[in-house]
Amino acid sequence: MYYLSTPLTDVQGIGAVTAKKLASIDIHTVSDFLLILPLRYDDRSQHTAIDSLPLGEVATITGYITDAKQFRKGKRTFQSATAHDETGSIKLQWFNNPYIISQVQPEVLYTISGKVGKYQTLVQPTIEKVGQEGIHTGRIVPFYTSTTRMPQGTTRRLAHHILKQLAVETQPLDEYLHTQHSTLPDLLTALKILHFPDQENDVSEAKKRIALEEFVQIARQGRVGKEEWSDKASVGQIHTQPQPIVPASIPFAPTNAQERSIQEIMHDLGRTTPMNRLLIGDVGSGKTVVAGTAAYHLVRAGHSVALIAPTKLLATQHTETLRSLFPDMEVAVLTSTRALKEASTPRLVVGTHSVINQLETISPALVIYDEQHRFGVLHRSTVMDKKTIPHTLTMTATPIPRSMMLTLFSHLSVSHVDELPRGRKPTTTWVVPEQKRADSYQWIKNQLKTNPDWQVLIVCPFVNPSEAEHTAHVANAVETHKHIQSAFPGYTVGLLHGQQTKKEQKTSITAMFQKDTQILVTTPIVEVGVDLPQASIIIIESAERFGLASLHQLRGRVGRAGSESYCLLFVSKKSGEATKRLRYITTHHNGSELAQKDLEMRGAGSLFGTEQSGFAGLRFASWSNIELLKLAQHADEVLPKQWSSEIISIAPSADTQVVAN
Fold first, then answer.
1. Domain that residue 49 falls in
2. Contact (Cβ atoms closer than 8 angstroms) between residue 237 and residue 268
């Protein structure tokens, strides 16, 4: 008898060498092994008469085997035999499989599966006695990943052996599903179906059962994180709500969304437990004003605040913006090259990741993270072992799909800045065919002539030409810069990308700020925080390389001064799916909707990139399955708090910790 927790070293048929091999890829127990789910299935359940075998396809026959023999050619051995049924005979051919000769018995009926080769031959067929429960033939046969470095037959035999002797205690999640009249199978049945289905149609529901378990574990992780956070005490509080809540120094009327978000944050700052809030808003929606207002009131109440930006450039930009919006608040700058001066008065300290190392010195009542969530991992390790911790506010312009909000971010309080600032208009977006490029350039020249203060951004996925053949067509900034200089004579064309020195980057940005440059060719580096108020037109080259969420963030870089703004999407490699996806963004401007659409069409990697795959990665479930997510949420609320999945363990990844802090 085996249990889900049984070590593989206790499983019959798994020796020390195999167990060590599996342990090297983090497979230690029966549950680990059973979650190596098949990559595909071959339907070998349909039996074909020998005289009707299709050439070049895998087929299954039933027959007797005779004339088994072996011969050698060089270092290789060859085995052959003949299979017979009532319609005819066919040759069976194996290579280096001497065991098969001793296995064959002439009076025994066999099920035989293999690929039909030339000259009426079944190549490398699998045989099993009729009357035995088939594992490799005469059924829907699973095929597994090569990660285990075990032969397919060995993996199948072990899975079959384990499932035959597996005892699974009644699962609370199965009992819950029964009360909900769900059609999903119980855990044991799901595992059996996934490895040895009677019908391929059953596999989908079995996968959902495992996916549900994964979603419930994610929901549990979020709830536990929220409970741990609520057990802490906050470093600083605002005991009375200030009036007016928006400082008079702000030179414009905030949007309703900004006011609502400020109210939500101020309410949190008055509580004894620390705030853990996510502030979501499109590029240019005014998140900095919201966060700055919270910082302003804490500083006035006698507390310091830290704001951590992803780049030195953005830290400097934040400093200038906050000093102009809140002239009564001291704003200090700390970067890797600029030390923090001692101060006896409360202040807002703005900097890059180096601020984290100075948290003890700053002693902030609030830590604000801008976009670069991974800083939160370091912060978490710095503060979570203390009884009193700072409030935390994480700002992001990355649109987060509703499905992720329901699970991965469920432990956070969330504020949405979901309105454009007053006077700002949505960016008109077009997908431009290549044959219209010259016309587009002329249209841009006309716009720059009519609006001499306007500036243009041109974004390319790559810095340099790709050496790989399959990406040679993708636009790069270096060559595009030369092309634009030629196509736009009389205009100053700048270049900005991540391979430049910090000084070169600053020079390029400064030239745009001072309007010495009219056109800037850049890479997606411009996506994170670079504020260019006069940029009114953006061209995105090889737009099919970007997800909808990234395209939405990039087009948010134009039109920030309130003028009309335009986004032109050029495609370097046509495909029906890419065109359909890009046309979707021309008529949709809601970041969350675009992110959810991107998730459904391209997967989580399109939202968070390869560096943050752990942030969005799921092993069994899909973020696009909203209904299963809702079921998991409800299950988490109903199931006993102490219950935890026996088969799925969700370890907080760096990026999930981030958002939790």
1. 40-143
2. no
